[in-house]
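Notes from the pairing session

We agreed to fold both candidates in a single pass and log them together. This is the raw record for the first candidate, unedited. Please don't reformat it; downstream parsing expects exactly this layout.

Candidate A
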Amino acid sequence: MADVRTAHTADLDPATLKAVRALLDDAFDGDMSDEDWDHTLGGAHVLLWEDGELIGHGAVVRRQFLHAGRAVRAGYVEGVGVRADKRGRGHGSAVMDEAERLLRGGFELGALSASDDAVGFYAARGWRLWPGTTSVVGPRGIERLPDEEGGVFVLPLSAELTFDGDLACDWRSGDAW
């Protein structure tokens, strides 16, 4: 049976961080850049262990969004992955159950950018595809990011959302979403 544990980045030892990075490199078929890795750090990690081995991971990091003229405290889900030989057994759902608990306890909105393969997974969990426009609040002001549209999912919590409006995330290096 798998054991779910939650810890802040500051509480993870170097060996665990190395195991998380290796898991995500594998889960994303080597498409996990250093910037993507950096995006998973600084928040809460959901770690799924089985027989002393890390088999699943997800992270919830705090981000600031702008929507309908107000700042929204968002929990952004990053680095969700399950070891290839353990997929299809509910492990991804176990990781997301805990991530969603963290979101409900501390944020106005949950958000994530889903890979094409994961769209159905998140939709089945009640995440909603953002139908409006997406932007980033960057060094030059608010910049629209049409390439991100169709892949951003939200989990409405207490934030009042206008689903035909714009959702702007805070700027960061690498992919904004």
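Candidate B (folded immediately after A)
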Amino acid sequence: MSLSEQIEKDYIQAYKAKDAVRLTVLRLLKTAVKNRLVDLRRPGGSLSDEEMLDVIIKEGKQRQDSIEQYRAANRADLADKEAAELKILQEYLPRALSPEELTALIETTVTELQAASPRDMGRVISAIMASHKGRVDGKTLSEAVRRRLAQ
């Protein structure tokens, strides 16, 4: 089952179960998908799983930014709402890499690309992000690669 089909199926289940939070998140996600299709000049078409993943990641990042801003403004109620929405979006993302897996992946990539200095950081991050889209946080990856190349 494709990611689009899974989201549609879950949307219908949330509607029948009257799960307001999940229904809202999936409705917003479906709207973001339609907007992306319009941007790609394919209205009425569908997105590949790779493109769907990009939309979900973007929506997740928006929720994460909102959480940080709400916490800074002492609005815990709104931050909790965004956190609940983020948790639902994360269900559609691939399983994140563990810290041990990330360290091993960085070591392998650094060896393959023969990266030796912090100047090579961009190449290492690009290679990892391309091969493990949605499974690694860019900020965490950047910090880990910086530490590894600074040795």
